[in-house]
Design a protein that fits this description.
Layout lengths: L1 H4 L9 H6 L9 H12 L4 H17 L10 E4 L4 E3 L1 H18 L2 H5 L3 H11 L1 H4 L6 H19 L10 H12 L4 H13 L1
Antiparallel strand pairs: 1-2
Length: 193
């Protein structure tokens, strides 16, 4: 935590600014810079336009009747189907968000990453109340983190289709010598939020 919240005192200590070739005249901490990176990524401009374009493509591909997952089907009749709108929208937005954020490689590593996320998300309230025996929640979170750790161990050129913000977050944390495991935990929390 100290590495994330400690502010550099001078230009020589500002490892993030030098490794990312950015300016940090206020000597902000990594935590503060991460907020700035997110704001910048979601501002109109090139990166935002790329994000929106990819989002639209993924969304259109998944919102087709033939792509309704069997988990969303409640009943199937001769002439009609009853689907769970909740399950269908979860599927569409999780698959779209996962592909948009991490690219296709993360789903090649773990085709169930979205399911693990949803299993975690369904019971994450237990995290906040520190309930003992929240095994399902902890197990689902751990599976996500392990997948993201494997993902981060791949060279960046094998995951170039990830959102620019993922590379920025990774590069800035590596500049502060944050472990791959901890970067994976941070990305899992970013994925969740």
């Amino acid at each position: 935590m100290d590495k994330i919240h400690r502010k550099p005192e001078n230009v020589q200590e500002d490892l993030i600014a030098s490794s990312l070739s950015i300016k940090n005249p206020q000597f902000k901490s990594l935590a503060q810079l991460n907020k700035d990176f997110f704001k910048h990524h979601l501002q109109p401009g090139t990166e935002y336009d790329i994000l929106i374009s990819k989002y639209s493509i993924h969304l259109r591909a998944l919102v087709r009747p033939k792509r309704i997952p069997c988990t969303a089907l409640v009943t199937v009749g001769c002439r009609n189907q009853v689907i769970s709108l909740l399950k269908w929208t979860q599927f569409v937005f999780m698959e779209t968000g996962t592909s948009l954020l991490f690219g296709e490689m993360v789903q090649k590593l773990d085709p169930d990453i979205s399911k693990n996320f949803l299993a975690f998300d369904d019971v994450n309230w237990k995290l906040w109340y520190r309930l003992p025996g929240a095994r399902k929640m902890a197990s689902s979170k751990e599976k996500m983190v392990i997948t993201l750790e494997k993902y981060l161990q791949l060279p960046q050129n094998q995951r170039q289709d990830a959102a620019h913000i993922v590379h920025i977050i990774e590069d800035s944390q590596r500049a502060r010598d944050i472990s791959t495991r901890d970067i994976a935990v941070n990305l899992a929390m970013m994925y969740w939020v």
